[in-house]
Hints:
Blueprint: E1 3-5, H1 16-30, H2 47-58, H3 75-80, E2 88-90, H4 92-103, E3 106-110, E4 113-117, E5 125-130, H5 135-139, E6 146-150, E7 153-154, H6 163-176, E8 179-185, E9 190-196, E10 198-201, E11 205-209, E12 215-219, H7 232-243, E13 251-254, H8 263-271, E14 278-287, E15 293-301, E16 313-317, H9 324-336, E17 340-342, E18 350-356, E19 362-371, E20 387-388, H10 394-405, E21 432-433
Parallel strand pairs: 4-21, 12-13, 13-16, 16-17, 17-20
Antiparallel strand pairs: 1-18, 2-19, 3-10, 4-5, 6-7, 6-8, 8-9, 11-12, 14-15, 14-19, 18-19
Helix pairs in contact: 7-8, 8-9
Amino acid sequence: MQKLSTETGVKNIPSVFSFFIGMLIIANLWGCGDFMHPVESTPAPTEYTYNYWLLERTYLFEEELGKLEPEGDSVQTLYEVLDDPFTRYVAPSKSEQTSISINTSIVPGSLGMEYVLYANQPYPLRIKRVYPNGPAGRAGIRRWGYIMEVNGKSLLQTETFSYSAAYNTYDSVLNYNKSIELKVAYEDDTLSYKMEKEDVYAPTVFVDTTIDGTIVVTITEFKQTTADKEKGSYGELKAYLDSTRNYSKPRILDLRNNPGGHVTQCVNMADLFIKSGPISTRSWRTFNGDGTPVKKSNTSNAISGDAGEEGKFLALVNGGSASCAEIFTAAIAEGAGIPVAGDTTYGKGIGQTTWNTMAGGLAIITNLEFLTPKGNSYHKIGIIPDYPCQSVDLNCGMKALEKYYGKKFSDSEDDKVSKKAISPSKPSIGGAFIESEEPFLIF
């Protein structure tokens, strides 16, 4: 079995399944005093016993292992007795889709756009982002247009047709149709576009500019495969930094609501800003080639020469910045002296490794814990910002830039704009609907 790294940067381990079967074969041979006589066969491992074996050797919180029953029928029940909410078993029917979600930024059946829903506009649905390589990008759709019609259905607000009804209509049409036609109103023109939905690899690094001219670099996740299919989120950020190596003005690194991702990604991305020294230290439970449990530790160190090392940056975080986003934030704060603004982060200083199981399921097991470059733990504590804000919007980042870099900014029009954004409880087939408080941004 090959381990898939999700929240880890740990190297591949020997095949768990091969070792497990090997031990059973050896045990069977040991029971044979004379090969001329039949012996009882050793029972083949089941999906349950295989997962029990994994948990016994890798689960981080060893004091809980006594709760596990060595024999049973329900793998889900085996995992449910553990207290850690991040350790879980994914059934074979859902394991492939879960792996895709963990490893990639793919959006199934998408136009490749993100939207904002305004409560006070005649046409409330506005295009916030367009993915260059998606259907919308190839069709030439521009940002900040208002969607007037979708497949001939009007989205105009009336007394009996609210902005939420407009959203529901748009979402329904995109859910049940592959061919999409949009009529979009811009300040200078009204244009129509015809597209076919497809699976789109979404970018995870976005670069925007405020009215004051400040660049905001938003990192939404840390994924192995994104719009940059070879280097993922790291490749996206590195390409931007390399293209602006001589840029000297302060910039905001926006990590609000970034839930994390691959440790190899966030560690490598933090390295882009750190000249030397430790980036992150991790320790984990695993097992040796003979199956005996063992604890290991590793510190990732920075390599100098990257484009972000000479720039001026500020990290903007909130309570939704978690896991890999916290590794990244702690690393650039302690390793590169980059100030942090916003609110205390989530406080997830542990990580998971995933294994493909015998029956094709996915075992996701918490087996790692992380420390900052200075050896500090932030698990269940979070990263406390240098510049705390009660309301963590871009104004918070602007004021923090003024404090640390001396640049003055005009007040945002944010609070003066009446609007509401909708985030569906399930991903929309048509695109990613996100909350936004930045209509004053120029893109």
